[in-house]
Design a protein that fits this description.
alpha/beta, DNA Methylase, Chain A, domain 2, 2 domains, six-stranded mixed sheet, two-stranded parallel ribbon, about 35% helix, disordered C terminus
Length: about 350
Amino acid sequence: MAKNFKKVQNLNDLFNQPKERKTKLLFSFIDLFAGIGGIRIGFEAYGGECVFTSEWDPHAQKTYQENFNEVPYGDITKISPEEIPSFDVLLAGFPCQPFSQAGLKRGFEDTRGTLFFDIARIIEFHKPKVVFLENVRNLAGHDRGNTLKVILTTLENFGYKVHHKILNAKDFGLPQNRARIYIIGFLDEVDFIFPEPPKTKTKLGDILDKDVDNKYTISDKLWAGHQRRKEEHKKKGNGFGYSLFDENSEYTSTLSARYYKDGSEILIKQDGKNPRKLTPREASRLQGFPENYIIPVSDNQAYKQFGNSVAVPVIKLLAESIVKLINKNGDKNENKQISC
């Protein structure tokens, strides 16, 4: 299978690193359920080479191609592990589907009928050094915890030492309350500890544009509807509905893939006019994407893509910790070979 990608030329600039990378190429990785490449950005910044990607959505494929000069392969369920080149690290921000039999009765067999099964069969065949999975925080409690148990047990049965933790984007320098679970498995014995969040103080004004097109201001009709539904939810005793933020807000609510529908979860206050939606570029900044990340799709598709994506600074810090361990373990193995 021929590789059809070309690296982003300015990736070092995006992360304020020297243009001449001092770090040698440490590992290869594959990017499954790749979306628009948010996880890839974090790992590629630390010397990794992407050798295979898979993403079925054509609009996300377009954005991925514009930024990485690579068209991802399509439906992962139709790709056999033999078609994938050998690699060191598996990356997957996979969708959380209900497990049909999440009861730990049959281990690996319990994942059939879910997209995690497609990850598992690739892991079983290739046995990469590291498995890196990202998902919504609710995965931890789904089906009374059985879904997560099946995932962890499956990886452990394949020989991995697995770590998992819920991390929030707002603790990593982004003005967004976005908690996600990260599952990291190592095939070798390593001393892995989740890095401490920097808890950098930010505010929403840091990512907002000063001059925004009036098309992002919501109409009188939509604003009236938002307020009416907010009041109805309030009477029911819940907090659903729009949330208003301004430049002094420490963080917003979670940007979701449904933001394109009416933008009701995050609205920005404006003096003398109705609130407005985030612009696609502001949505990308809310996720920590680099400023020159290309957005080649419609606003609605952009909202969907960034809402489905990851908080890049979280990925980057985790990637740094993982790469250090890969490098350290590689040095140990080299020394063992020399001593023989």
